[in-house]
Amino acid sequence: MMRDMVIGLEAVLADGTIVSSLTKMLKDNAGYNWKHLLIGSEGTLGVITKTVLRLRPLPTTNQTALVATASFDKTAQLLRRLEVSLSGRLSSFEVMWDDFYGAMTEAQLSKRPRPLKLGYPIYILLEALGGDPDSDPAQFERVLAAEIDTGLIADAVIAGSERERQALWAVREDMAGGYANMHPCTVFDVSMGLADMAGFVADVRKEIPDRFPGARMLFYGHAGDGNLHMAIHVGKAPRTDEVESAVFDLVRTVKGSVAAEHGIGWTRKPYLGVSRTDAELMLMQKLKDTLDPRNILNPGKIVG
Amino acid sequence: MMRDMVIGLEAVLADGTIVSSLTKMLKDNAGYNWKHLLIGSEGTLGVITKTVLRLRPLPTTNQTALVATASFDKTAQLLRRLEVSLSGRLSSFEVMWDDFYGAMTEAQLSKRPRPLKLGYPIYILLEALGGDPDSDPAQFERVLAAEIDTGLIADAVIAGSERERQALWAVREDMAGGYANMHPCTVFDVSMGLADMAGFVADVRKEIPDRFPGARMLFYGHAGDGNLHMAIHVGKAPRTDEVESAVFDLVRTVKGSVAAEHGIGWTRKPYLGVSRTDAELMLMQKLKDTLDPRNILNPGKIVG
């Protein structure tokens, strides 16, 4: 996450004070961590003018595969096992539910065949990064083969070249085709504990068509950090507020976040209370009032 | 770092409000991150009553070595190279300067011989963790052998058993013997950018004996995150304030932190300004005044 990469910060506060800590220290427990308060505050507590980012050495190897599993439960087990057996090299674990995989690969059929056949409930794009060309690729193949033996992986294809790697990533990222018959649609960026994710998806799949007959839905996400994306199309007329209200009611039941990575701004502001208690909202307002008493910094966003 | 492991928090604020976000979400950008403001505030902004910690699967393999290098510059290069070549498995990179290594191994000579001979400027305890018993140990040996070929490692010994591993760790951690003729001593927990560390150590080694003839010093640290520990003995009479003042003057010149991991409390409070600008101290005071206007929470610590 970006927050974890920021080690130094400079910001201008509402009263004109320049507060600066452009250090290169990774570890520092000298006083209050005001940097984390500014990060993600969307310009409402101060204007960030400089940052120092942590750099990491570039990995020199990558291995990419598309695998299918028989259930979300097996998917979660697979994630936990790969985190260990790949010795921390697992860098992508992009879950695609069957609806998303079907739509994306359908749109690309003119360019290439489906890398794995339809019919599984879950497809996962896996990538491992590393720095040891002598052992990384063989380790990756051995670890995936072991999970085929355990039954956690039902089917798999490993990219054998950079061209094949890009073709597998296109299944996850070449959105234009997959979204072709989804306009207009409401997109979501929610998060929750991994243990709640299968039930949440099942609830959305039941409730949304009940309330919006003929709705089309795509589910996909970065399961490794509990982040789930959804695209929901309920007909030609935009009904964003109704769809959001229905989905966020379900987010509330799993104590999830309405904004995993894209923030609140003003469009998600009415739903901040889904993810935050009244006491938290009061604390946020108090911090805003302290740092920006005249409400001149990006007014109307997040709180106030 | 502990901060990165905390994903949920409950705290009681000075006005009695219970503010709670005991979520299991790893990724959440819904509003201000008040959790990071409370973490590390040493009870001065609220009383933390519950936490949710991130758990990670236990690694199943470890490989441990003690190596020597010809300079701090080569040590820093080695760190950067191992971060890549061990594919992110490097978990310990404990730097010990010759004075520390000499004192610690001297104290243990009745139990075991020195694992590496004296005479190098820097010794490093290395550990890698992983989950693949089929390839991790061989990879570790291959990577270290490659760095002997590049000349970054001058000498090395790899632990061949758990008993040998514990003997290598004792060089770093069995403090009682190494500190035997250091009482009373002043210990430090500072941090800085890795590029500044060699010059800083050289400056301390020059300035302290100039001001305190006969001073004895030990240097060691977690170089991977810029953390340096020092123990300084300047005679039988405690002269903590003078020693701290001299060392922190040098910390100021490298824009380092006076408290990398152990916090400020009241003993480091006079030196908070070494690591923080006046604007930062004013911001911290403002946050304290907002959240604890009657100064009832751990008064006298950090600020106020």
Give a short account of the largest sheet of chain A: 7 strands, antiparallel
Query: What does the average pLDDT of chain A come to?
Result: 93
**Strand order in space, largest sheet of chain A:** 7-4-6-5-9-10-8
Unreliable stretches of chain A? none
- The SSE string of chain A, one letter per element, is HEEHEEHEHEHEHHEHEEHHH
* Most extensive protein-chain contact, per-chain counts: A-B, 88 and 88 residues
| Shape assignment of chain A | globular
Question: What is the oligomeric state here?
Answer: homodimer
Radius of gyration of chain A: 22 Å
DSSP helix fraction of chain A: 25-40%
Based on DSSP secondary structure assignment, what is the total number of beta strands of chain A?
10
Itemize the secondary structure elements and their pairings:
Two copies of one chain form a homodimer.
Chain A: H1 2-5, E1 6-12, E2 18-21, H2 34-38, E3 47-53, E4 61-69, H3 72-85, E5 90-97, H4 98-107, E6 122-130, H5 136-150, E7 155-158, H6 162-173, H7 175-178, E8 186-191, H8 194-211, E9 216-222, E10 227-233, H9 240-253, H10 272-275, H11 278-291
Antiparallel strand pairs in A: 1-2, 1-3, 4-6, 4-7, 5-6, 5-9, 8-10, 9-10
Helix pairs in contact in A: 8-9
